[in-house]
Amino acid sequence: MSASADLSSAASPPRVSSGVSGLDEMLQGGFPQGHVVLVLGTPGVGKTCLALQFVSAGALHGEKTLYLSFEEEPEALLGSASQFGWSLGEAVKKGTLKLVRIDPQDANNALKRIRSQFPAEVQAFGPRRIVVDSISLLSSLAPDEVERRSLLFTMARMCRQTGATTLMTAEANPLAPEVSRDGLGEYVADGVLLLFPTEDPQAHRAGLAVKVLKMRRTAHTRTRQPYRFGPRGIEVDAKAVDFGGL
Ligand SMILES: Nc1ncnc2c1ncn2[C@@H]1O[C@H](COP(=O)(O)OP(=O)(O)O)[C@@H](O)[C@H]1O
Ligand SMILES: [Mg+2]
Hints:
This protein is an alpha/beta fold. It contains eight helices and twelve strands. The strands form two sheets. Strands 3, 4, 5, 6, 7, 8, 9, 10, 11 and 12 form a ten-stranded mixed sheet that branches. Helix 5 runs parallel beside helix 7 (145-162). The structure holds adenosine-5'-diphosphate and magnesium ion.
């Protein structure tokens, strides 16, 4: 199992690897088991990639995983994963990984499925890891603010009830990048990670960085740390000295 007890503090919950060793280092060993973690960022920063890396870390140990995709089709997700050498197709064949695509255009059916069928189906499958990509599209299914809130709370509760560790992605508000577009995901999550582009105008160089905005029961770093896409996925440099900004 990739979840291992953190010996540094008796009160600290067991940790589940995010799949990114530098990020695990920023989080005292990984995500607290059973928590709902929100990954926030503008389009293209690598939220889906991080979600797939989290899935592949579980697949290595045969952990049952459910991936609810409101955006990309399963084939596209498997294609993105294979770029980094993660052969998730095998886990799908074995039945340990379920990639479920929900069409956000068909809001009525999607809502019915999420509210009436999903809770029993998900409990029966018994995943150890869940991904919801993205809750921005999930919440767009609801007709108004009250429904949006209720839908997100229902989803988060369903995930927690399984005991799985959950990664939810959300689009950042372009005008206030530390906040999600609908401002709701933060309230249902136990932890929030922000992925964001950085710029060094003097060096004419653009980069990417990750910051932990919140992680319950974790003495996490508060600095922003750079990351890049390597041949095996996202690599976070947890040792880099804070380079200012945001
Ligand atoms: N093999 C790769 N090598 C380098 N960068 C990549 C690779 N695959 C994807 N990317 C980067 O990841 C971005 C897409 O990541 P994705 O996880 O889909 O973002 P998001 O879900 O945040 O919109 C691309 O815009 C590209 O910059
Ligand atoms: Mg995405």
